[in-house]
Amino acid sequence: MSTDNVVFRTVFKGYSKEDVNKYIEEMNVQFKMSSDDFERSLSSYKLKAEELEKLNSEKDDQLSELNKENESLKKSQSELKDTVQKKESDILALNNKINSLNKEISDKNDELEKINLSLADEKSNSDKIDEYRRKNDEQKLKIQLHEKTISENSDKISIYETQIKHLQSIIDEQNSKIKNLEIQLTENNNSNMNQEDELYKKSEMYDKISSQIGDILINANSTADSIINSAEAEAAKLRSDTENDAEKTKQYLSDLSDKIIESFDENIHSISDKCICDIVNTITDIQYLTNSLIDKINDKNQEISNYISNYKCSAHNIMREKINSIEIKSPEKSDLNTTIIDENITKDRQNICVNSKSKITKLG
Amino acid sequence: MREFKIENYETWINQVTAGEVISLSGTVYTARDAAHKRIMNLLDKSQPLPFPLEGAFIYYAGSSPAKHEMPIGSCGPTTSARMDIFTPRLLSMGVKGIIGKGQRDDYVKDAFLKYKAVYFCAVGGAGALAASRITSCEVIAFEELGCEAIKKLKFENFPLYVAYDCHGGNIFEH
Predict the structure, then answer these.
(1) Which of A49, A141, A201, B42 has the CA that lies 20 to 30 A from A123?
(2) Nearest C-alpha of chain B: how many angstroms from A168?
């Protein structure tokens, strides 16, 4: 896909359109081919990944199976170890037995030699020799039997030894397998360990922070409690102080009010007495004045009434005289004239009353 | 919310169900990673343990120092998953209740079912609330581990969620 060695034919106002289009089409084809290649390789990689996953799961299964096998082998190994130990102890016991028997044989041989020597000395005593010979044969038989059991046991020992060797080889094989698996496991675990470490650190940090928050809350609670307690104590103190102050003030005010009331009572009594005396005096003065005024008014009233009656009489008489003169002149208008005269009389009376009242007020 | 006492766990341990909120009172022992490792060492060497495992309740927590006349400082639960490898062995030796935070591995869950024990979850991050429900605290082993030392606590109406019950119930599957 390199753009090296790409030459476009030039035409008027730039490169040839056909050349460029052709180049683009070629490029498209190349891109498509390469993308197809990539897709193919991707699918092959996917397949490989799936295969690897399968293989991984198979390996895991194998690992678990091998673990199980390992455990069973460990068990069998321990059992075999026990049997080997047992067999070894058996071998030791048998060896001891063989040694003791060998010793017995050598003792018996010594005895036989002695007997032979004694036989040589006592050739005449053939019965004894026969008996010794018989005994000797018996001992020989016994020795043969013992030798047979020894050979049998040695065979068994060799079989056991071969078995042990075989088992040991199996154990070694399994151990090497286990070691390989352990290496794999440690490799797998190492990657997990980092994540676990991170999680562990995070949880530790969370615990630390939460405990710090808890401590802060406890501190805050206790501080709040102490503040409330001190505030309550202060409030109680203030309350008691205020109550004391109030009591004192109350006492002071009551004393003061008592004093004021006492002094006020004394002043009031003296002032009121004086006032009452003054009032009584003025009332008596007023009474005297009013009485004198009333007397004067009465006198004046009497005077006015006298004037009025006199005026009435005189006016009445004048009126009568005038009416009589008018009746004589025009008898038909006499009624009208009398009413006019009466009206004039009432007007005069009212005027007189007003005048008299104004006079009275002036006098009062 | 039902209230239970640890001292008579035999009467109620089969009755609680996963998802239930209960109030627990009685003696519990705190132990975290380091303390668990020490306990395992003691068990391996057949040496005496700092507290009897039969019928014991273990709280996965490392408390802060006590303050302001309180018996204990902030005492919230820690992530239980870190103690997974130790739990089945302790359950097999008679531990009946474990208090922590978060899910456990499947084999640990199976161990709870097998040994008829209960896994409780405390509220994470609420150390102050937890501390307010603890009436006494006494360091009984591994003092050199500091906050991870084994402490004997007295719970008084400690609120807990039942996470795994004796019958295979699981709060995380709800």
Answers:
(1) A141
(2) 29
Torsion B52-B58-B62-B63 (CA) sign: negative
Say if residues A363 and A296 touch (Cβ distance below 8 Å): yes
The closest alpha carbon to A218, from B124, B127, B133, belongs to: B127
The domain segmentation of chain A, as residue ranges, is 10-202, 301-363
Structure tokens at A306: 């006298």
CA distance to A66, A67, A69, A79, A133, per residue, from A72 (Å): 9, 9, 5, 10, 60
Please confirm, yes or no, whether B68 is among the known catalytic residues.
no
The two three-digit tokens of residue A164, written as one number:
């042990």
**Is the CB of B125 less than 8 angstroms away from the CB of A218?**
no
Chain A positions in Cβ-Cβ contact with residue B73 (cut-off 8 Å): 211, 214-215, 218
Measured over all CA atoms, what is the biggest interatomic distance in chain A, rounded to whole angstroms? Answer: 251
For residue range B13-49, what is the model confidence (pLDDT) as tens digits? 999 999 999 999 999 999 998 999 999 999 999 899 9
| Exposure on the CB side of residue A194, measured as CA atoms within 13 A | 4
Q: Residues with Cβ < 8 Å from A1, sequence gap 6 or more? A: A27, A30, A31, A34
Please give the domain boundaries of chain B with CATH numbers for all domains: 2-173 (3.20.130.10)
Number of Cβ pairs closer than 8 Å across A and B? Answer: 63
- Give dist(CA B87, CA B103) in Å, integer: 13
Instruction: Tell me which amino acid residue A183 is.
Output: I
| pLDDT band at A328; cut points 50, 70, 90 | low
